[in-house]
Amino acid sequence: MQILITHFLDQLALTPAVWVRVLATRGSVPRDVGAWMAVFSDSTVGTIGGGRLEQDAITHARALLADPGAASERSYALGPSLGQCCGGHVRLGFEPVSAQDADRLRQQLQAGHQAVALFGGGHVGHALVQVFTHLPLDVHWIDSRDAPFPDTVAPNVRCEHSQPVQDAVATLAPGSRVLIMSFSHAEDLDIVAACLLRQRARADLPFIGLIGSKTKWATFRQRLEPRGFSAQELAHITSPIGLPGLRDKRPEVIAVSVAAQLMALPDGPRP
């Protein structure tokens, strides 16, 4: 998603566009409220769902480019007249924009981004960051080792070296979804404990996920209970992470599974 936003604003610096947004929906529709695309004279960035709806929206947007006017709205019934059988209704907004609107657009487009804290710069961590680049997430990527991060990362990723690694828990943004997958089970345990203590004090980490097997989590429970954590507190940990029933353990597959799990959480971000 961040790449999409950057691509849109980079092109907007060179030529005007019409910003098309889904303003309201009813019934079955291809995209939810907030979905958007930018229509330039010879290209588009993003999508509002494809099909005839998108084709008609592009045609109308380019008519606005040729004869600029004020922002407007149009409603579409997704039935036989559009060659679509969704059966719902969509209201679209059309706003001519130019380079002078870039700062405002960036703020609006990033307003719905959700905070994710990723502990661990291993294979799965790297694969996850690649997936997160395309989603409306602000990623705080943390590791205790000196050089686990790539030389360059997407604009929505912030890297931090923390030693000891669990000290970074105190600085996480409120509302962060936490993913724990360090190179060491001992580090993982310390991070989980720090997250539970913060959750006890502030109750602002809605999801704490730990990579690994059910056996790993059973072992962690046995070590955390003597530290004074209640069964209710330990129930806040999700482990294993990812979609259930997945047997493929390639990092890329795990990354897609975990990303899908995050996006399905209540009040999760919508791209």
Integer count of domains: 2
Q: Helix- and strand-based class?
A: alpha/beta
Using only C-alpha atoms, the radius of gyration works out to 22 Å
Q: Approximately how much beta-strand content do the residues carry?
A: 15-25%
What is the rounded distance between the termini?
7 Å
Broad shape: elongated
Low-confidence stretches: none
CATH architecture assignment of the largest domain: 3-Layer(aba) Sandwich
The residue fraction in helices comes out at 25-40%
Question: CATH H-level name of the largest domain... which superfamily?
Answer: NAD(P)-binding Rossmann-like Domain
Mean pLDDT: 90
Number of helices: 8
Overall strand count:
11
Write the layout of secondary structure elements.
Elements: H1 2-12, E1 17-26, E2 36-39, E3 44-46, H2 51-66, E4 72-77, E5 89-97, H3 102-110, E6 114-119, H4 123-132, E7 137-143, E8 157-161, E9 177-180, H5 185-202, E10 207-210, H6 214-224, H7 231-234, E11 237-238, H8 251-263
Parallel strand pairs: 6-7, 6-9, 7-8, 9-10, 10-11
Antiparallel strand pairs: 1-2, 1-5, 2-3, 4-5
General description of the model:
There is one protein chain. This protein has 271 residues and is an alpha/beta fold. It folds into 2 domains: 2-109, no CATH class; 113-263, NAD(P)-binding Rossmann-like Domain (Rossmann fold, 3-Layer(aba) Sandwich). Helix content is 34%, strand content 22%. The chain has helices at residues 2-12, 51-66, 102-110, 123-132, 185-202, 214-224, 231-234, 251-263, and strands at residues 17-26, 36-39, 44-46, 72-77, 89-97, 114-119, 137-143, 157-161, 177-180, 207-210, 237-238. The chain has a 6-stranded parallel sheet with strand order 8-7-6-9-10-11, sandwiched between helices. Strands 3-2-1-5-4 form a 5-stranded antiparallel sheet. Helix 1 runs antiparallel to helix 3 (102-110). The protein starts with a helix and ends in an 8-residue tail after the last helix. The mean pLDDT is 90.
